[in-house]
Amino acid sequence: MAAVKAVAQKRRHLTSTKTTDPYHAQLWILGDAIGEACWLKGHASGIRRKAPAEGKIRIDLSINELLQLSWLAHLGFQHMMPNYRGFEIYRFNSEEDAREGALAVGKIEGVIPAKDRPVADLTVQFKNRQKLISDWWEKEPARLRA
User: Fold this and answer.
1) How far apart are the C-alpha atoms of 49 and 20, rounded to whole Å?
2) pTM, to two decimals
3) Where are the domains of the chain?
4) Residues 36-72: pLDDT tens digits?
């Protein structure tokens, strides 16, 4: 408001057409100050909105990864229940589907702070999942020869 009062108190001087009117120059300064204040307020608000809350972690997942994780979480929940009998069967449709699911699980595990991870080396767990997938969808099964 001080800037508006300062501009209002200035007297306008008629000048030639080639020079800038001091009144307009003061309005430009005012407009610049208002614009910068608005941008800073909006930018700070956007940063706060994007940042996770204290003690929280934010993870970017695609819709497909989120669907994979929801099925895996549901299956894991069922297997943790003592009364689960295993009647429902949810399986990966293809090798690519299984690899996407393994990648989504790996993303979740990767953002867990190292001190809180149940497994110290995530690469070993990731490789074990990839081996399970490769073994199941192997092109030519390995046969024992006598």
Assistant:
1) 42
2) 0.51
3) 2-50, 63-136
4) 888 888 877 777 777 777 887 788 888 888 888 888 8
